[in-house]
Amino acid sequence: MSEPSQHSFFDDAQGIAFGTFTCAVGLHILTFCGLITGQTAGLAVVISYLSGWSFGLVFFVINLPFYWLAWRRLGPIFTAKSLISVTILSVLTELLPAGFAIERLNPGLGAVIFGALTGAGLLALFRHGGSLGGVGVVALLIQDTSGFRAGHVQLLFDLVLFSAAAFLFPWTIVLWSLLGAVVLNFVIAINHRRDRYVAT
Q1: Which whole-number Å values give the CA distances from 87 to 12, 83, 97, in the listed order?
Q2: Nearest to 80 by CA among 26, 9, 152
Q3: Which residues does 56 contact at the CB level (< 8 Å), separation at least 6?
Q4: Domain contains 16
Q5: For position 199, what pLDDT does the model report?
Q6: Is residue 69 part of a domain?
Q7: Which of 47, 78, 86, 200 sits between 20 and 30 A of 16, alpha carbons compared?
Q8: Range of the domain at 70
Q9: 45-88: per-residue pLDDT in tens?
Q10: Are 150 and 186 in contact (CB under 8 A)?
Q11: What is the helix (H) or strand (E) element at residue 117, kind and residue range?
């Protein structure tokens, strides 16, 4: 059996571009429906809703402390790719509403679309050595050191975040949002497995 080939610079560039764009579209759908999500993006969405500040700015700033952990434990290349991914996503979420207007979308369907798109986007980022920072960094670190799947780590964090959100938002919003988070995390948990995908 031959050794797995390494991703080229072009492979990583298109993977990060696809992943960030797909996640940005998913987040645009999420915020149109007035839903929330988990992980670091979820914290940024909640802060954005409650404060009126730009999601892109909040998301970029809230990720800053995690780069130190990523640099120390996962290396400079992973950290650089994650910083690039977070920056691109922050910019895209500001630009998308100007060119992508949604007229009507059922919140349940919106939650599923968000979960599928964002899960696929995160999967692309993970497979090309990047992430959207924050909880994703911690989840990958735990998976690499203990074998406990990254998607399961993120799902546990999301359960805590949604429990807190239940006191801040209507229960219908929380339930539809939880559906989106479950879809997202199961996409990652089922597909992001090092025993099935070995190229880096």
Answers
A1: 16, 6, 17
A2: 9
A3: 89, 90, 91, 93, 94
A4: yes
A5: 42
A6: yes
A7: 47
A8: 9-191
A9: 888 888 888 888 888 888 888 888 778 777 888 888 888 888 99
A10: no
A11: helix 107-127
Question: Count of CB atoms within 10 A of residue 52's CB?
Answer: 7
Given a contact cutoff of 8 angstroms between Cβ atoms, the answer to whether 111 and 176 are in contact is yes
**CA-to-CA distance for 109 and 61, rounded, in angstroms?**
30
The structure tokens listed for 78 are 């992973």
If you search the block for the tokens 């992430």, which residue do you land on? 131
Structure confidence by residue, pLDDT tens digits, 83-136: 888 899 989 998 998 888 898 999 999 999 999 999 999 888 888 877 777 777
62: which 2 tokens?
Answer: 């809230």
**Total domain count, the chain:** 1
Give the Cβ contact number of residue 185 at 10 Å.
Answer: 27
Measured distance between the N- and C-terminal CA atoms of the chain, rounded to whole angstroms: 17
The one-letter code for the residue type at 83 is L
Q: Classify residue 2: in a domain, yes or no.
A: no
Rounded CA-CA distance 9/49 in Å is 37
Tell me the one-letter amino acid at 86. Answer: V
